[in-house]
Design a protein that fits this description.
Helix content is about 35%, strand content about 15%. The protein is an alpha/beta fold. Strand 2 and strand 3 form a beta hairpin. Helix 2 packs parallel to helix 3 and helix 6 runs parallel beside helix 7.
Length: about 300
């Protein structure tokens, strides 16, 4: 299944462009509000269906799913909880939803890194193997699109190879192709139980100062078989979207990340702005910048105005 994107000859914001992040946390017995993210919760496996039903009634059909398991694994191999969550959602909603699965190891590794590390260095071979196991599990469960967010070298090429070997020739990849090392990920890391320990992510995430490296990262992922590309954080990467699209000819979107979204909430909480107006303005700027899709924690809030 592909995501439908409107014709971007105009800068009009459309509900079909929006992707709503949604969390399922195996550790929870009841839903838990995510600090700083307004109308966003971490859901249990038993309550996630109702949450998506509510969003569907509002007109949201695209969901980026983050799955947080209870147990950490030094060498991740067991993705059975992930399988159950995805399988149950696709069995329930079938083609009514497009289900993108964030594919990373940060919520399952003991040190919160996006790959498997030894002595403060990433073991790329082991990391690719684990990511391949995860992605194949998600596809077998019924995932529509795999969204690798690890930012390791050649992950897209590796996943495309694995998919072809396992009969998933038509599988879609939405690469987090231009993802910066950023201070705007705080609320997400709290929800995903993924704060890095021991060393930071500068060895695999992009430096914000290097524009050419950022654009080239998306070009490389396009060449390796990605179907969709992304800039992240979106609001601080907005100058890159048009150039990436021109260089790759692929649909390119923006992720309005948790810290960016939380700032809108804080402005309203301190009576310095109106949340819904700030959200509308920020999303329309993404659209004006020619983003083909927008991942935002406010999708369910803005959709009734479109």
């Amino acid at each position: 299944m592909k995501i439908y994107f409107p014709n971007k000859s105009s800068s009009n914001l459309s509900k079909k462009m929006l992707i709503q992040p949604i969390f399922v946390d195996q550790r929870l017995k009841v839903k838990k509000k995510i600090k700083g993210l307004g109308n966003n919760y971490s859901w249990t496996q038993s309550t996630i269906t109702k949450a998506i039903e509510t969003d569907l009634k509002k007109g949201i059909t695209n969901f980026l799913l983050f799955i947080v398991p209870t147990d950490k694994q030094k060498l991740p191999e067991d993705f059975s909880f992930h399988y159950d969550v995805i399988h149950n959602l696709k069995k329930k909603f079938k083609k009514d939803i497009t289900l993108l699965i964030d594919t990373c190891l940060c919520s399952i590794t003991p040190d919160g890194h996006c790959g498997i590390s030894h002595k403060k260095k990433i073991d790329l071979k082991q990391t690719h193997y684990a990511l391949g196991l995860a992605a194949n599990t998600y596809l077998e469960a019924g995932a529509d699109i795999i969204a690798p967010s690890d930012m390791m070298k050649n992950t897209t090429r590796y996943l495309r190879k694995i998919f072809n070997e396992n009969g998933f020739h038509q599988s879609q990849i939405m690469s987090y192709s231009t993802k910066f090392k950023s201070g705007f990920y705080g609320p997400f890391r709290d929800a995903a139980n993924s704060s890095p320990k021991g060393f930071d992510r500068s060895s695999y995430q992009l430096p914000v100062t290097d524009r050419n490296k950022a654009i080239n990262s998306s070009i490389i992922n396009a060449a390796q078989g990605a179907n969709y590309l992304m800039v992240k954080p979106g609001m601080t990467s907005i100058d890159l979207i048009a150039d990436i699209k021109r260089e790759t000819l692929l649909p390119t979107g923006a992720y309005q990340v948790s810290g960016e979204f939380a700032s809108l909430q804080l402005l309203e909480a301190n009576k310095l702005g109106k949340y819904i107006d700030l959200l509308n303005e920020s999303l329309n700027v993404f659209s004006r910048a020619k983003a083909d899709f927008i991942i935002t924690y406010g999708a369910r809030d803005i959709v009734k105005y479109l």
